[in-house]
Amino acid sequence: MIVNRLVFRRIYSWLAAGGAYLSGGPKPNPHPAVIDEGFIDAGPAYAMSHASTIAASGGRLVVAWFGGSLESRPDVRILVAHNDGHGWSVPREAANGRQADGRRYACWNPVLFQPESGPLMLFYKVGKTPRSWWGMCTRSRDHGQTWSPPERLADGILGPIKNKPVQLASGEVLSPSSTESGDWRIHIERSNNLGASWTPVQLPGSGACVAAIQPSILTHAENRLQLMCRTRQRRIAESWSMDGGRNWSPLQLTSLKNPNSGTDAVSLADGRQLLVYNRSASRRTPLNIALSRDGRTWRDGLVLASGFGEYSYPAVIQAGDGLVHVTYSWNLSRIRHVVLDPARLE
């Protein structure tokens, strides 16, 4: 059943990608906030490229994603490219699912995280399915050029499932995570030692009333935090913490439509919150940006991609120079990068 759905989505995306290539590729976005946009790679090197993540590290941008013949196939590996201001490097393999006994499993959902000090971290999952996968982590001390031998996370710890962790003023790292074995449930993994160990924090009622996965963490004034996540109910759900992530309110559905597809969000330096999501209850198009000053009332910002096809699984950060960087899956075949000036987003 899952494979059939994946094949259908892949065929649909192939048709959309083919139509885009015949028409000269995606058209430039005319919105004044869009400074630059383009593909990470020179061409589709793999049949499927999906689930990108982006980080700023050592004055360069680093992007990772998974690529291979089809999601869940054993040949799917984690790829990384970097940009130091002179264009994107050729993507290289950073990790694969090969085991010591020779067996090989698919890699899934990489997540890059650059703490305030220390090496760049790359989390990812390995396994046959999201029900049985396990968390892995590798580190880079040269900003994505080379990577340490991967380490398996402790039992019961999966790492960030899709979206980046956040580091609080105290130095504590909060990793947004979730499980898909049985009910969909979200949780937080906390670390006071930059990932040497983690402590899970469960959310009340997660999985009972709202089936949710893949949360993002937003920071607000007065030690308040907000989770935003995808759900099976075709709307984005949220949860709030008033004590820096130690306790959380029960998940509640928002009015924001979403077709049970990945989202991401970031807290901007000017105090606004920025959300990237598919604004539809049924399709992974269009891909939109919404903005909020309080995390509760959201207004449209711009449309990143629309039309026939699939534009999904965004990742978003704000770099040190204030610019916002978004990556997303373009028809499941390539990774697209968009640079935004948030001052031009009303």
What can you tell me about this protein's structure?
- It is a single chain.
- The protein is mostly beta strands and 346 residues long.
- The protein has one domain (2-344): Neuraminidase, CATH 2.120.10.10.
- Helix content is 6%, strand content 45%.
- The chain has one helix at 2-22; strands at 34-39, 48-57, 60-68, 77-83, 92-95, 106-113, 120-127, 134-140, 151-152, 166-167, 173-179, 185-191, 199-202, 212-219, 225-231, 235-241, 252-257, 264-267, 273-278, 287-292, 299-305, 311-318, 324-330, 334-340.
- Strands 1-24-23-22 form a 4-stranded antiparallel β-sheet, with no helix packed on it. The protein has a 4-stranded antiparallel β-sheet with strand order 2-3-4-5, with no helix packed on it. Strands 6-7-8-9 form a 4-stranded antiparallel β-sheet, with no helix packed on it.
- A hairpin with a 5-residue loop joins strand 14 (212-219) and strand 15 (225-231).
Tell me, what's the shape? Answer: globular
In terms of per-residue confidence, which ranges show pLDDT below 50 for 5 or more consecutive residues? none
Strand order across the largest sheet: 1-24-23-22
Distance between the termini: 43 Å
Please report which band the strand proportion falls in: under 5%, 5-15%, 15-25%, 25-35%, 35-45% or over 45%: 35-45%
How many individual helices? 1
Features of this protein?
346 residues, Neuraminidase, mainly beta
Produce the secondary structure layout.
Blueprint: H1 2-22, E1 34-39, E2 48-57, E3 60-68, E4 77-83, E5 92-95, E6 106-113, E7 120-127, E8 134-140, E9 151-152, E10 166-167, E11 173-179, E12 185-191, E13 199-202, E14 212-219, E15 225-231, E16 235-241, E17 252-257, E18 264-267, E19 273-278, E20 287-292, E21 299-305, E22 311-318, E23 324-330, E24 334-340
Antiparallel strand pairs: 1-24, 2-3, 3-4, 4-5, 6-7, 7-8, 8-9, 10-11, 11-12, 12-13, 14-15, 15-16, 16-17, 18-19, 19-20, 20-21, 22-23, 23-24
